[in-house]
Amino acid sequence: MHCTSPKMVCETKIVADEHDAIPGTKKDSIIVSSSQMWTSTPAPAAASVVENKEPPGDTVFIREFERADHGEVRRIFCEGIMERIPNTAFRGLRHQPQTQFLYAMLTLMCYMVTKSLALTCCTPFLLMGARYYYSRKVIFGYLDCALHTDMADIEAYYMKPSGSCFWVAVLGGRVVGIVAAQGREDDNTLELRRMSVDSHYRGKGIAKALGRRVLEFAMLNNYSAVVLGTTAVKMAAHKLYESLGFRHSGESQDHTLPGTPRSTLQSLFFQIRYHRYRLQLHEE
Question: Which of 280, 272, 279, 281 is nearest to 9 (CA)?
Answer without folding.
Answer: 272
